[in-house]
Structure formats: structure tokens, C-alpha cells
Design a protein that fits this description.
The chain is built from 15 helices and five strands. The protein is α+β, with helices and mostly antiparallel strands. A five-stranded mixed sheet has the order 1-2-5-3-4.
């Protein structure tokens, strides 16, 4: 809703996630499908998913997207999307399949032949196609696209809009099909040094077990993956959890904590772990914890430990 509000004329009543009675700490797939359908209806926009994909700013998917953009080749970028997908949504599954001289980047939901529904399916394939164009150049177009759902619109018109030769619907999964040779194409803005940092951090973030129960556990799990590049606000976190800032604040208070305490505690734990277990520079740790400048990290670390990050790290290695 927030992403669209910046680009589309969404009615004020629809900007509040409570309009869909989303009072649970996480959105299951059924709720995502309903949300997309309701927004499309409210906006009278049958191309809602495609327009949403075109309107999102770069970097909205955090460390997962940044790792793909920093990868050396399109194949390596696809591998990062598959490897780190759980940081975005562990209800959906990504995969890479080779069939003859083609590579298929596949997206599906186990047990759901329509995957995430028409609008979210179109959003997914449109966003992935856009990402690969940005990584590999304007000439990087899929040879074909598969959609999990049955598409009511003429497929010829859809193929023209998505700029692909062929679209197949009712496939039970979403897929972008590329020539296998295209996966060797270098990424235009590849950054090996940044990729090494992002790979290390994304690996640390990958969950080994389910998040702790309750609103605080859900909030902490999302915050962990969203820190890099800037700390999320209370409103940001509330939107991700499908509720309002006021309700999230109230729920966290009932569990004896607050958004700022969760953020501070997570930053402290991550700072200690990154300084102890990696060789990342102070600037790199600053970025991954969402601080705007190393001085901010130094001040925060002083509050937590009474020492500077450099002195604390050195003492561990004596």
C-alpha cells in the first residue's frame, strides 16, 4: 500500500492496513491474494500487479536485492535470489531449472496451483523481468513467461506489455525463461567487494529456526533483514506485519518492549557478532546496521560496552 501511495492515487481509506482487518502479526498467502485483489478493485486497475512492479524503488528488498545487483553475472544474481529468498518470504519457493538450452527462474507456492494469485503473480514476473533488464541491459528479455493462474486477459496483449514472445498461463507456477547463455552475461554494476560483505551478512541472517512467537518475535525477525542501508521506522515495521503503527506499539508494550528497544537490542547483538565473527570494516558494519555514519555506531557501541568498536574487537583477539 505504501509503495503504491507514492506513485498511484490510492484512496486514503485504503492506506491503512486495518482496512482489511489484518490483525495478525504476519500475512499468510491467502491474505496477500485478498489484499492484491481488493486494491486492484478499489483502483479499478486490471493491471495492478504490473504497475506496482514498475513503481517500486530500487533497493526495497534489502540485502537480497542488493546481493543480486552486486553479483558478477546474471546467473550469479539468480542464485542469490534463490539462496536468500527466505529472508523475504519463506512461504514461497524460488528455483533455477535448466531445460536444454534454456534456464528457468521458477517461483511457486507448495500446495497452491495458482501460486499467489493473478495480481501478485503478474507483480512477481514483472518485477523479476525488470530486475534482469536493469542488471543485464535493455536487451535482456525473457524468451517466455509462465503464469501459475488462468489469465482472463488476451495473452497476446499481455505478451506485448511484458515484451516477451510467448506467455503461457495455468502453469501451476510462475517462471521466466531465458537462453542459458544469457546467464553468463556480466552484471553492469557488479561490485565484488560489496557482494562479499552482503553474502556474509545474508548468510548470518538466514533463519535456523522459526521466529519467536508473538509480535516482538515477528518484528525482530523482519527488522533483522531490513537494517542494511537504513533503520526501519515503527510505521515501516507495522506495514510489514500487516497492522497499524498504533496497534503494533500497543502490542509490543503488552509484551514488555517497544520498537526502539527491539531495534536497539538487535543492533547491539548484530554489532557484537559482526565485529567478533567477521573481518568487516567499521564502515561496512555501519552500513549493515543501518547507521548513517560510523560515528553513530561508535556512539551507540560506547553506550552498550563502554568501549569503541575497534578496542572491543582488538581485546577479543589478544
Amino acid at each position: 500500500v505504501t509503495a503504491l501511495a507514492a506513485a498511484l492515487a490510492i484512496p486514503d481509506a485504503l492506506r491503512d492496513p486495518a482496512a482489511w482487518s489484518m490483525d495478525r502479526p504476519a500475512l499468510p498467502i491467502d491474505r496477500v491474494v485478498t489484499l492484491m485483489e481488493r486494491l486492484a478493485e478499489a483502483l479499478e486497475d486490471p493491471r495492478f500487479g504490473e504497475r506496482l512492479a514498475a513503481s517500486l524503488p530500487r533497493g526495497v528488498y534489502g540485502v537480497v536485492e542488493l546481493a543480486a545487483r552486486a553479483a558478477p553475472s546474471l546467473g550469479a544474481a539468480a542464485e542469490r535470489l534463490v539462496r536468500y529468498q527466505r529472508l523475504i518470504n519463506d512461504a514461497v519457493v524460488y528455483g533455477i531449472e535448466r531445460r536444454g538450452d534454456t534456464i528457468e527462474l521458477v517461483h511457486h507456492v507448495p500446495g497452491r496451483p495458482d501460486a499467489v494469485g493473478r495480481h501478485a503473480n503478474l507483480f512477481t514476473v514483472s518485477l523479476l523481468a525488470r530486475l534482469f533488464r536493469e542488471l543485464g541491459g535493455d536487451a535482456m528479455r525473457p524468451a517466455a513467461i509462465e503464469l501459475a493462474h488462468r489469465e482472463p486477459a488476451p495473452l497476446s496483449a499481455l505478451a506485448e506489455r511484458l515484451d516477451v514472445p510467448r506467455v503461457r498461463h495455468g502453469a501451476g507456477r510462475n517462471a521466466l525463461v531465458y537462453p542459458a547463455a544469457a546467464m553468463e552475461r556480466p552484471v553492469q554494476a557488479a561490485d565484488p567487494a560489496l557482494l562479499a560483505v552482503l553474502d556474509d551478512y545474508a548468510t548470518l541472517l538466514l533463519p535456523e529456526e522459526a521466529p519467536a512467537p508473538g509480535w516482538s518475535g515477528r518484528a525482530r525477525a523482519w527488522l533483522r533483514g531490513a537494517l542494511a542501508g537504513g533503520a526501519p521506522s515503527l510505521a515501516d515495521t507495522a506495514r510489514q506485519l500487516g497492522t497499524t503503527a498504533r496497534n503494533l506499539q500497543r502490542q509490543l508494550a503488552s509484551e514488555g518492549t517497544s520498537h526502539s528497544e527491539l531495534l536497539e537490542g538487535l543492533r547491539e547483538a548484530e554489532a557484537r557478532r559482526l565485529l567478533a565473527d567477521t573481518e568487516l570494516s567499521l564502515g561496512e558494519v555501519t552500513f549493515l546496521l543501518g547507521y548513517s555514519h560510523p560515528r553513530a555506531l561508535v556512539r551507540a557501541f560506547g553506550r552498550w560496552t563502554g568501549e569503541s568498536p575497534q578496542r572491543w574487537r582488538s581485546a577479543l583477539r589478544v
